[in-house]
Design a protein that fits this description.
Elements lengths: L3 H23 L17 E5 L2 E7 L2 H8 L8 E10 L5 E4 L10 H7 L6 H14 L4 E2 L3 E10 L4 E10 L2 E10 L22 E3 L1 H9 L4 E3 L6 E4 L2 E4 L2 H10 L3 E2 L5 H13 L12 E2 L2 E2 L2 E6 L6 E13 L2 E16 L7 E5 L3 H14 L3 E8 L10 E2 L5 E2 L4 E7 L10 E3 L8
Helix pairs in contact: 3-4
């Protein structure tokens, strides 16, 4: 009887050796040449003087082909970067600006090792080392390679910083990541304002137009009011998108079977789901054009906003009206088809102030002000949204004027239109 533990131990050792032998004999590593993968067909480039930067973000399928490894499953996303330096100055590429928690080449290689395949694993390490974007960009040269970043779905803000003699040049790109079904992919262009419908306004005209907006979003039939309208964003797509994505807001998955199931599972077990779908609310006779969110570590808590393109412009720039609130938990309700709903923080003005700070931190805000929408709700007599959650507000809408020129908070202009009352 005393020999049994020794026999069992010997069996485990033999089985382990057998598994290693099988893994070693079956292991392979066959990455596809990057020119045959497809991501180079949708690169984006920007030039400043004698520097040109080109980038592309690989999809899940492209990553599997290029690296013969399921990096997306490990939450790793390769970003291809090319720097053409036509100057006589030496520059240094700073990958931390792209992702403060990026992965090193050997770290990703180790995560891609095959079980018991020492020779193949050595090839994997050498391959990943050869593919990374190196720090040095010599004069009159072209340098390219990959930065292994944390995975983003839908859209990714790619910031490329180059350090030269006495200067830093930064190139920013908002890149759409293929393979993600976002809610904004479902926009019906025929429902958006036509060129003939759009009215261009000056500052005073915009202020009056915002003041005359309806108080709230509604249900599909516009028979019941919901959450209050409380933000207006003035700026082009290339200003609004980067401003929010750079600040950590993520796109929202479209409402379909797989995303609803994933949300339910995340809610049941307390998981996070950064892209959880957001239910449609209505303004201008249509559901939101885009919804964005900033999620916490579980699906019950997040900040989220909805935006609608307005039938007006400000000095030629698009205007979007929106609603922002903070989800602080979930509860049961008979007013939803899923019998559950997020509970919002009743202080919706606080969440409006949060977005103001976010836009300042992202250095995308050049001016802002408040307009009195005329629909306050007191703490003692709160209003209610479509699912019955109470909220209180001063009735103000924050109007944000965006810029693509980095602007520090100290240089942001405050417009003294209507100043919110002190509490």
């Amino acid at each position: 009887m005393r020999t049994m533990p020794r026999i069992n131990g010997l069996v485990r050792v033999l089985l382990g050796l057998l598994i290693l032998a099988i893994g070693s004999s079956c292991a392979s590593f066959k990455p596809v040449p990057i020119e045959d993968v497809g991501f180079l067909e949708r690169t984006e480039s920007k030039t400043k003087g004698d520097l040109t930067v080109t980038v592309s973000v690989l999809s899940q399928e492209e990553t599997k082909l290029a690296f013969d490894s399921k990096l997306y499953k490990k939450k790793i996303q390769p970003v291809w970067v090319q720097v053409e330096n036509k100057s006589r100055d030496h520059f240094w590429f700073l990958p931390r600006d792209l992702d403060a928690d990026y992965y090193s080449a050997f770290e990703v290689g180790w995560k891609s090792h095959r079980l018991g395949a020492k020779s193949v694993n050595s090839d994997i390490d050498r391959f990943f080392d050869s593919q990374q974007m190196f720090f040095s960009v010599p004069p009159e040269s072209v340098s390219s390679g990959f930065v292994f970043t944390n995975r983003n779905r839908g859209a990714k803000w790619v910031s490329v910083a180059l350090l030269g003699e006495g200067r830093v040049e930064t190139f920013g790109f908002l890149v759409e990541v293929p393979g993600f079904k976002a809610d904004y992919h479902q926009i019906d262009p025929d429902q958006l304002p036509s060129a003939e419908e759009i009215v261009d306004l000056d500052a005073e005209g915009l202020r009056r137009w915002v003041a005359d907006l309806q108080c709230c979003v509604t249900n599909a039939k516009a028979t019941v009011n919901g959450d209050p309208l409380n933000i207006v964003v003035v700026g082009t797509d290339l200003q609004a998108g980067p401003a929010l994505i750079r600040a950590g807001w993520t796109p929202t998955a479209s409402m379909r079977g797989s995303s609803v199931i994933k949300t339910g599972v995340a809610g049941l077990f307390g998981f996070g789901y950064r892209y959880a779908p957001i239910s449609p609310l209505y303004l201008f006779g249509r559901p939101q054009d885009i919804a964005l969110q900033k999620a916490r570590s579980n699906v019950h808590e997040r900040n989220h906003l909805r935006l609608w393109l307005a039938p007006v412009t400000f000095e030629g720039e698009p205007v979007r009206v929106g609603q922002i609130s903070r989800d602080i938990g979930t509860r049961l309700t008979t007013k939803s088809s899923t019998f559950t709903t997020h509970k919002i923080d009743p202080d919706v003005d606080e969440t409006r102030a949060y977005l103001t700070q976010d836009l300042m931190v992202s250095q995308a805000l050049r001016a802002w002000g408040h307009v009195d929408g005329g629909s306050p709700a007191a703490f003692e007599e709160p209003a209610k949204n479509l699912t019955g959650d109470p909220y209180f507000t001063d009735g103000m809408l924050a109007v944000y004027f965006l810029t693509d020129v980095p602007t520090s908070a100290a240089d942001v202009e405050y417009l003294y239109w209507d100043v919110p009352p002190a509490r």
